Amino acid sequence: xxxxxxxxxxxxxxxxxxxxxxxxxxxxxxxxxxxxxxxxxxxxxxxxxxxxxxxxxxxxxxxxxxxxxxxxxxxxxxxxxxxxxxxxxxxxxxxxxxxxxxxxxxxxxxxxxxxxxxxxxxxxxxxxxxxxxxxxxxxxxxxxxxxxxxxxxxxxxxxxxxxxxxxxxxxxxxxxxxxxxxxxxxxxxxxxxxxxxxxxxxxxxxxxxxxxxxxxxxxxxxxxxxxxxxxxxxxxxxxxxxxxxxxxxxxxxxxxxxxxxxxxxxxxxxxxxxxxxxxxxxxxxxxxxxxxxxxxxxxxxxxxxxxxxxxxxxxxxxxxxxxxxxxxxxxxxxxxxxxxxxxxxxxxxxxxxxxxxxxxxxxxxxxxxxxxxxxxxxxxxxxxxxxxxxxxxxxxxxxxxxxxxxxxxxxxxxxxxxxxxxxx
Length: 424
What we know:
This protein is an all-alpha fold. The chain is built from 17 helices and 3 strands. The chain has helices at residues 11-30, 41-57, 74-80, 90-113, 121-129, 142-156, 160-174, 188-211, 218-223, 232-241, 263-287, 295-309, 318-329, 338-357, 359-364, 367-396, 400-403; strands at 227-228, 248-252, 255-259. A hairpin with a 2-residue loop joins strand 2 (248-252) and strand 3. Helix 6 runs parallel beside helix 13, helix 11 packs antiparallel against helix 12 and helix 12 packs antiparallel against helix 13 (318-329). It is globular, with a radius of gyration of 22 Å.
């Protein structure tokens, strides 16, 4: 039997690119005290805040009455992991583990892209897109969370239950990976994915609750967050300062937030828009009639984009999630999200200019800072709208491109399942 062989040619340049860009990111992290690199503010979160939480967690308790602790209990496992590497400082071990998660993500994307009918463009987007955020990805644990989301999506194609397990693990670390299960095909795949997620989530949550006290302490602090200056609402309020609005910025809950008149109304509006986004995603799932192999990937990117742009907080590390999900979409030739991925990459580059390069301008609400955030958030909003529109259309109309050139299964006289327009 003849088998399609994939030459390793494109993999070698990708490997070289990964090594070169990660070496550059490591160099940047060792020189992060420069003013254009944030004056040390990017790395400070690891060696000061994460290390502090590590000390609390090592004594068997989640941080309680700590306004900066806003993460699900699974985050504790990630923050404790650097302590398992002997002979290294906490900061060194954290960066090394983050690089390992980055390499794992690149590897699974390459493996997915080298399968017959797939594309290495996704691996290229991850490898070349992450450095657009400079050294920030190595100083946040969002790379680890994104790795779990990527594993969930790619595993779901072969084992929905395994995809559900990875999705649950990601959700226990930072909630949003639960959204990657939104696009699983109806019927047995959905039941398997959510059964795996529920089982893994229950087991891990029980284990964490048995090992640590106060596992749900994060809920109170998360609910108290306001409008961060980099969110859509924060950008609007910063622009309002030029029209006489009397508000200002203040450091609260681990971020620079807007305080003053009408901030509560803006925060409420953000929550309403998030609810509307959820409703739109449910409507898509109910009305969609056609699935292909890329539909779960496309739905995941669309969902996370919608929840990101309507959030009260759009931290720069959120772009790591979007780059990872865009990369998964581009492993499939059937994806409808290619132009969305371009917008995500452009927004990532602008996000780096905003933070750490020009963050003082953003904090002070200068015209330069306002226009910069307006451009970045405008790109993200355009990406979210375009992503949902294309997702909706792909679920309602025949994908002629996906059918053209697809070979019938031998002896069956029909198209393979991944290219069928399925109505269930």
